[in-house]
Amino acid sequence: MRILMVEDDPLVRELVVDALREEGYEVFHASNGEQALALCKRQIADVLVTDIRLPGGVDGWQIAERCREHDPQLQVIYATGFSPVEARPVPGSLTLHKPYQPDRIVEAVRQMGKERRPPSIS
């Protein structure tokens, strides 16, 4: 399973990416919304793990909404300590509140992987 991790705090990002890779996941990461959207357009991930409050003009809500335009089956996990805007999670997503331990993200990804529907065959 491939995961896109979006987190602006380099220490948190490194800890979570390392924990996910130790579990055998292929992990791509971005530090802001613009980088994340560029990766989403390539549909490289099965699960998106995104902080909500990010630097720049694109927040975690927007990342999930736009990534779902490219991949409606994309599983989404939001991580937040505070969001200055009203919550608008995509359907079927999870929200984890900071601070969290990296193993909490690993468990959430594992759960999302079980729920991911196989692609339809036309």
Report a brief summary of the structure.
The protein is an alpha/beta fold and 122 residues long.
Written overview of the protein:
Helices cover 39% and strands 20% of the residues. With 122 residues, the chain is an alpha/beta fold. A five-stranded parallel β-sheet has the order 2-1-3-4-5, with helices on both faces. Helix 1 (10-22) crosses helix 4 and helix 2 (33-41) runs parallel beside helix 3 (60-70).
Strand-pairing-aware structural class: alpha/beta
Number of helices: 4
Strand content: 15-25%
What's the Cα radius of gyration?
13 Å
User: How would you spell out the order of helices and strands?
Assistant: EHEHEHEEH
Strand tally: 5
Please outline the major beta sheet.
Answer: 5 strands, parallel
Instruction: Catalogue the unreliable spans.
Output: 117-122
Shape: globular
- Quaternary state reads single chain
Straight-line N-to-C gap: 23 Å
Share of helix among residues? 25-40%
For the largest sheet, list the strands in their spatial order. 2-1-3-4-5
Please, what is the average pLDDT? 89
Task: Write the SSE topology.
Layout: E1 2-6, H1 10-22, E2 26-30, H2 33-41, E3 47-51, H3 60-70, E4 75-80, E5 94-97, H4 102-115
Parallel strand pairs: 1-2, 1-3, 3-4, 4-5
Task: Note the main attributes of this structure.
alpha/beta, disordered C terminus, single chain, 122 residues, 4 helices, five-stranded parallel β-sheet
